Amino acid sequence: MRAVLVRLHRWFGIGTALFLFVAGLTGALIAWDHELDALLNPTFFYARSDAPPLSSLELARRVEASDPRLQVTYLPMSVEKGHALQMMVLPRVDPKTNQPYPLDFHQIAVDPATGDIQSRREWGALSVARLNLMPFIYKLHYTLFLPFVGDIDIGTWLMGIVGIVWIFDCVIALVLAFPSVRAWKKSFAFRVRRGGYALTFDLHRSGGVWIWGLLLMMAVTSVSMNLSTPVVQPIVKLFSTLTPTPFTDPSLLPTAKPNEAPIAREDILKKAEQARVDRHIEAPPGAIYYAPMFHVYGIGYFGAGDDHGDGGLGNAWTYWNAQTGQPLGAQIPGKGTAGDLFTQAQFPLHSGRILGIGGRILISCVGVLVAVLSVTGLTIWLKKLNGRRAASSARKAPTQRVGTQQTERAASQ
What we know:
Number of strands: 12
InterPro entries: PepSY-ass_TM
Order of helices and strands: HHHHEEEEEEHEEHHHHHEEEEHH
Shape: elongated
Organism: Paraburkholderia bengalensis
Radius of gyration: 27 Å
Keywords: Membrane, Transmembrane, Transmembrane helix
Largest sheet: 8 strands, antiparallel
Protein name: PepSY domain-containing protein
Helix content: 40-55%
Distance between the termini: 54 Å
Structural class: alpha+beta
């Protein structure tokens, strides 16, 4: 049985090593994506003027009036002092062609005092230019920039499958790390003084044992991040019900005529404020999101700069019919079924934000260690492969010498 597990661990490790190496290093960086992005691109994060900010609704109105080709689809309701207001935009439909206007950007940074656009970019573009570097790393983390085939996101599916293999490999690795009850201490030790291959082996085995729980958590949450709808939700529903939202239950999606304009943001925000009171949500409306393809508004509840929801299970969201203003569901952290709580915990756990700054530091360290485990695993495999080849050559050498001697005798006769 152990021989089978060793073979499985070997091939699972070889098959996923490169993907986990990339995911580990990129994950270590994107735990600090906002901070690093702001360091690289101050004009995208910091306001040019010091004047008091206008309301976010007024800023969105000015942006849309200045460029009728676009509509604001994600709008923070407040901004940190001295910061630019970052909005997401999508093209409107050109009535002459009945096609979306061509836009080469969909994220903009706006001076909150004037409404002037300071900078713009295509978030997640295949570019390592300074302005695009952090979004590039973020998207590389979970898609590898692989293309869609039809409606299938190959990159997201591939990284999700890697996560599934990783889950099984975590279990196999733990079994292999403890070959006997008497030798359990060796599975936690590092032979630092010996160095070389012995230390490489210990970094892989003992390093994996020390952080095994975190590795398993990262594997499970990576599957949840990439394959939530097709894989994770059906499994969760076997054990618990899930409170439906428009993005998890298509039957809740409203119908609308093509290009039908949504109701005003102000009207949805009034309803969202009343929902905040009714549902006992402490934070104010922090952002409004409009999904044109689904005809849905989403309202997130958080303070300025807390859109990621550091600490706990994240931010509350309510969802609304963009044509009628009727409520379509909500996600309230810490409330709902066991399945709801499980799904709420996935991103906070995967990003480390469930524990705030300390959690993000921990996840960055785990990301680096995942890359180390990938490298040491490949190193061990290559050394053993070379050893097997050398042993095979040594076994063949006597036979080859005997054959050569026989040939020489025959030739001399």
